[in-house]
Amino acid sequence: MKVVDVLKAAPAPNPHGVHASRIYDNEHAQAVHILLRPGESLKRHVTPVDVFFYVLEGEGTVEIGEERRRVGRDNLVESPAHIPHRWMNGGEKDLRVLVVKAPRPREETRIL
Fold first, then answer.
1. Residues of 25-61 as b/e, b for ≥16 C-beta within 10 angstroms?
2. Please, what are the domains in the chain?
3. pLDDT of 21-71, one tens digit each?
4. How far apart are the first and last CA of the chain?
5. Would you say 21 and 75 are in contact if contact means Cβ atoms under 8 Å apart?
Protein backbone atom coordinates (compact mmCIF):
# COMPACT_ATOMS: atom_id res chain seq x y z
CA MET A 1 0.00 0.00 0.00
CA LYS A 2 1.27 3.43 -0.89
CA VAL A 3 0.17 6.37 1.25
CA VAL A 4 1.04 9.95 0.32
CA ASP A 5 0.95 12.74 2.88
CA VAL A 6 -0.24 15.46 0.51
CA LEU A 7 0.82 18.32 2.77
CA LYS A 8 4.38 16.97 2.94
CA ALA A 9 4.74 16.03 -0.75
CA ALA A 10 7.61 17.85 -2.43
CA PRO A 11 6.62 20.41 -5.04
CA ALA A 12 7.85 20.00 -8.60
CA PRO A 13 9.12 22.83 -10.79
CA ASN A 14 6.33 24.08 -13.04
CA PRO A 15 5.74 26.91 -15.53
CA HIS A 16 3.28 28.58 -13.16
CA GLY A 17 5.87 29.10 -10.43
CA VAL A 18 3.52 27.85 -7.69
CA HIS A 19 3.56 25.00 -5.19
CA ALA A 20 2.34 21.95 -7.15
CA SER A 21 3.00 18.35 -6.11
CA ARG A 22 2.33 15.38 -8.38
CA ILE A 23 0.84 13.04 -5.79
CA TYR A 24 -0.39 10.27 -8.10
CA ASP A 25 0.92 9.28 -11.51
CA ASN A 26 0.34 6.06 -13.38
CA GLU A 27 -0.46 5.04 -16.95
CA HIS A 28 -4.19 5.75 -16.51
CA ALA A 29 -4.48 8.99 -14.51
CA GLN A 30 -2.58 11.75 -12.79
CA ALA A 31 -3.34 13.79 -9.66
CA VAL A 32 -1.68 17.04 -8.62
CA HIS A 33 -2.05 18.99 -5.39
CA ILE A 34 -1.87 22.75 -5.99
CA LEU A 35 -1.39 25.31 -3.24
CA LEU A 36 -2.04 28.93 -4.20
CA ARG A 37 -1.09 31.48 -1.59
CA PRO A 38 -3.06 34.74 -1.44
CA GLY A 39 -2.41 36.72 -4.63
CA GLU A 40 -1.04 33.75 -6.58
CA SER A 41 -2.55 32.36 -9.77
CA LEU A 42 -1.93 29.84 -12.49
CA LYS A 43 -1.13 31.05 -15.96
CA ARG A 44 -3.87 30.53 -18.52
CA HIS A 45 -3.17 27.13 -20.10
CA VAL A 46 -4.63 24.21 -22.05
CA THR A 47 -4.42 20.55 -21.11
CA PRO A 48 -4.69 17.78 -23.71
CA VAL A 49 -7.10 15.70 -21.56
CA ASP A 50 -10.20 16.25 -19.43
CA VAL A 51 -9.49 17.55 -15.94
CA PHE A 52 -11.51 17.92 -12.79
CA PHE A 53 -10.68 20.12 -9.83
CA TYR A 54 -11.77 19.50 -6.26
CA VAL A 55 -11.34 22.39 -3.83
CA LEU A 56 -9.86 21.08 -0.60
CA GLU A 57 -9.47 24.36 1.27
CA GLY A 58 -10.14 28.05 0.76
CA GLU A 59 -11.87 29.95 -2.03
CA GLY A 60 -10.68 30.98 -5.44
CA THR A 61 -11.75 32.01 -8.88
CA VAL A 62 -11.65 29.47 -11.67
CA GLU A 63 -11.76 30.51 -15.30
CA ILE A 64 -12.64 27.94 -17.98
CA GLY A 65 -13.06 29.21 -21.52
CA GLU A 66 -15.08 32.42 -21.25
CA GLU A 67 -16.69 31.49 -17.92
CA ARG A 68 -15.40 32.71 -14.57
CA ARG A 69 -16.71 31.61 -11.18
CA ARG A 70 -15.77 31.90 -7.51
CA VAL A 71 -15.79 28.50 -5.82
CA GLY A 72 -14.90 27.17 -2.41
CA ARG A 73 -14.27 24.10 -0.33
CA ASP A 74 -15.93 20.85 -1.38
CA ASN A 75 -16.77 22.11 -4.89
CA LEU A 76 -15.87 20.00 -7.92
CA VAL A 77 -15.27 21.75 -11.25
CA GLU A 78 -15.02 20.02 -14.63
CA SER A 79 -12.67 21.33 -17.31
CA PRO A 80 -12.82 19.73 -20.78
CA ALA A 81 -9.69 19.00 -22.79
CA HIS A 82 -8.30 21.77 -25.01
CA ILE A 83 -10.24 24.58 -23.27
CA PRO A 84 -8.09 27.39 -21.76
CA HIS A 85 -8.33 27.57 -17.98
CA ARG A 86 -6.67 28.92 -14.84
CA TRP A 87 -7.10 29.38 -11.09
CA MET A 88 -6.66 32.62 -9.14
CA ASN A 89 -6.49 33.21 -5.41
CA GLY A 90 -7.59 36.79 -4.76
CA GLY A 91 -8.48 36.02 -1.15
CA GLU A 92 -6.60 36.33 2.11
CA LYS A 93 -6.23 32.59 2.83
CA ASP A 94 -4.52 29.68 1.07
CA LEU A 95 -6.35 27.86 -1.70
CA ARG A 96 -5.71 24.12 -2.05
CA VAL A 97 -6.99 22.27 -5.11
CA LEU A 98 -6.77 18.61 -6.12
CA VAL A 99 -6.36 18.32 -9.90
CA VAL A 100 -7.15 14.99 -11.56
CA LYS A 101 -6.29 14.36 -15.21
CA ALA A 102 -7.81 11.34 -16.92
CA PRO A 103 -6.61 9.72 -18.96
CA ARG A 104 -3.00 10.51 -18.08
CA PRO A 105 -1.71 13.13 -20.55
CA ARG A 106 0.75 11.93 -23.17
CA GLU A 107 1.73 15.49 -24.12
CA GLU A 108 2.57 18.53 -22.03
CA THR A 109 0.22 21.27 -20.90
CA ARG A 110 0.46 24.34 -23.15
CA ILE A 111 0.83 27.76 -21.50
CA LEU A 112 -0.97 30.54 -23.36
1. eeeeebbbbbbbeeebbbeeeebebebebebbebbbb
2. 6-111 (2.60.120.10)
3. 999 999 999 999 999 999 999 999 999 999 999 999 999 999 999 999 999
4. 38
5. no
